[in-house]
Specification:
It is built from 8 helices and 3 strands. The chain is mainly α. It has a 3-stranded antiparallel β-sheet, with helices on both faces. Helix 2 packs parallel to helix 6 and helix 3 runs antiparallel to helix 5. The longest helix has 27 residues.
Length: 195
Amino acid sequence: MSPVHQIKRKVLRQVRMKTFSILTGNILSFFMGGIALCASYVATGYTSPPLRPLILVLCWLLLFYFTHSPAHYFAGRLLGIRFKYYFLGISRISKSGMPLLSQIAEKFPYVMGVRIDRSSMKNVSKKRVAVMYLAGPLTSIFASSLVLLIYQTVGVSMLESVILAFLILGNAVVSLYFSKKYGCIAKALKALQVS
């Protein structure tokens, strides 16, 4: 990537980034996560089969999206890491260089994140920093799996359950792969390597 393109991307990222307080970010995350859990329960019991899978996939996406950053925040706070604010910005996948995926990530800029107070990480062990970074992707994957558990407890069609299970497993594989290359898992591994 040319230096000019890198500068353009950095300026674009700064222009697009919106910030908001830690309290606002946490309230938004819990609210959206609660809506997703309630809607998935309601959808399993009260909607017809053609509409139910669409609602459940939406609930799954909401849980995946709105649990990632708060997991970093709460794990980090428990481990002694401080944070400055939440933000909406561009996904790190936009840096992947993969022709289609990085272009989509650059066009869809609003990924929620939480800004770490880097000075607080100086007094924390590398293992604690790594755990804080790992909390986001692992929580996203496991929290979104709650939709399948809710689905199973209501006793809906096996075909719909299998489709949702494959979506969850596929997402876990893809998420872990990209996170290890460009995201939070890569940051965790880097934190463990730095002396």
